[in-house]
Amino acid sequence: MSGILARLYQFSFSKPPTHQLKSENTFYNILPFLLAVHEVNQNSRLLPNITLGYNIYENFFSARMTYEAMLDVLSTGQENIPNYRCGRQKNLLAILEEMDSELFDHISNVLSIYKFPQINYSVINQMAEQNYHFPFSYRMTPNQEPPYSAIVQLLLQFQWTWIGLLSRDNERGEKFKRRLEVLALKNGICIVLSGTVPEGNMQTSAGESLIQEKRKMFHSLIKSQIKIIVCQLDFQASGMLAAIIQAIDTTNTSIVGRVWIATTLTALSSKRRMQVGEHQPPQIVQPWQLHKFLRNFQHHNISRDGISFDENGVPVGDFDIMQWTSVLNKSDAGVKIGNMVPSSRCTESCSPGYAKLVREGAPVCCYDCSLCMEGTFSEQEDAAHCEKCPDDQYSNKKRDQCVPKNISFLSYQELLGLILAFFAIALSLITTFILGIFMKYRDTPIVKANNCELTYILLVSLLLSFLTSLLFIGRPVKMTCLLRQTIFSVVFSVAVSSLLAKTVMVVVAFLATKPGSSMRKWLGKSLANSIVLSCSGIQVGLCMMWLGVFPPFPDSDFHSQPEHILLQCNEGSVTMFYSALGYMGFLAAVCFLVAFLARNLPGAFNEAKLITFSMLVFCSVWISFVPTYLSTKGKYMVAVQIFSILASGLGLLGCIFIPKCYIIILRPAMNTKEYLMIKNH
């Protein structure tokens, strides 16, 4: 004899049912037991000379009615008074019950006194603590702790981030909703509609039964625009939901493309292996004798050979993902319906190359897509933020991957480098040609009148300045970085110093022509050489200090141009670099001022006017160089400096020496002492 406490809602068995059961969902837990008892009683080989019986009670979710059922089971008299044997005969061996956590204690408190086996086939929370207090309770189902992480992973796998939530109106339902909401929020899933299914069969204030309330809840969810609904229901509610969906599906197509995710237990069947000794009677007559066998039996899952138990003897549930659909005969079956997956999102997915941009005041799953900035990328959909590319790579146009940067420097293989090198070599050859002319005609009056030694120094310095520009072309290495700025600064300082010396000598020569002038002692090579050595020596000292304190070195610029790595010479000390340029500009300004004041002095071969114009060109070039140099990067910065060197050198060469070469080569008659005397008078 066994007793069953079940939740049968409005149904109650006071006698064996005489009519055919119309709804198998209503008795989904009772019918397997009835069938099993029937099979055992019909098979004489299983329990010979033993007939199993049972009593079925319902408790209407009431603790009072649960106690009354327990007292009735334990009493043999007309009244429910335990421990008395009179009237009825009951051979009660075990209690099978389906109570929740709220009513589990009420049963266990009574049954533990008599050591009756209490077999629970429902879901009990905190089983470890209950096993400690009630050692005679057994569990047939695994701990139905919903696989929250698996549900969230399933939603994320199909990018379902706009969902509804349906749970039972009890302790487990509240826990399910609370934990799933927290986990969903962490993973960017929005629960836009949350409902509860009422428990029990009491009447509502409006007079509608709770079953009708369930139907209304299901209808409202089905008619909503939400395509993905996560449900935590019992079998009865799940069956009702399936029936409503099937009924609507026959007359309406509004549920097409909708997914219901339900969490439930995997079915368990148990097989008990008992060994009866030779001196032990095969018939068990006392309830406490069952404990030996109940603690040593095996569970077998319908889909596996066996299942495992935790330290409390509770089966560990395994979860499968099943896709069920209704077929034409209105039965349910697991069918593969294809690869089409419905979409349930607030916004479309952000493609690779984009990152999510949260809308102000909107749920976390409602966002805009923002294209990644230059230098960043995203490889996956719905990226929370864009990743930065390594320094030697840049993001492509789609911003979905990083590609290696191109190495950039001014080389001889490109057109710009070839053009600049060509002009540098051409101007060097022209300077060499002019130097040769002046050396050949060094005895002519026009060469002697303009201090041929200073002329040679100026031409050699211009030749070296044109050749210096070649150090700026090519891949930067340590030697070229050390030499190019320092040699350029020194060579140009020598050239400007020689022009200053020329101008000063013109002024001194004019002043020395006055009677009794003391300036005659300054005439000669010593003054000119002193000016050149002293002025250029200061620049040499600055460059030596520059190389000693913080010399230039090869460097790579990863950030100035997004798609290129700029190989360049780092000037080391920017202060020393601009100090060298500033000193050269100071010399040019002094030379221009002296030449401008001496431009109207008499003399057939007075160079003051030519020097004034040449220094005007020189200063104009280098004044425009500074802002242009600062506004460019990479190889174009180098090209600007090379152009300034060639242009300023060409200005000096053209303004000072081309007119003299014209006279020497094409107008030799003007290069005579007689012509000089005639012009002076």
Write a short abstract of this structure:
With 681 residues, the chain is α/β, with parallel strands linked by helices. It is built from 18 helices and 22 strands.
Structure characterization notes:
This protein is an alpha/beta fold. The chain folds into four domains: 55-139, no CATH class; 148-199 and 212-263, Rossmann fold (3-Layer(aba) Sandwich), CATH 3.40.50; 354-404; 415-678, Rhopdopsin 7-helix transmembrane proteins (Up-down Bundle), CATH 1.20.1070. 44% of the residues lie in helices and 14% in strands. It has 18 helices and 22 strands. The strands form eight sheets. Strands 2-1-3-4-5 form a five-stranded parallel sheet, covered by helices on one side. The longest helix has 35 residues, at 478-512. The protein is rod-shaped and about 165 Å long. The N and C termini lie far apart (153 Å).
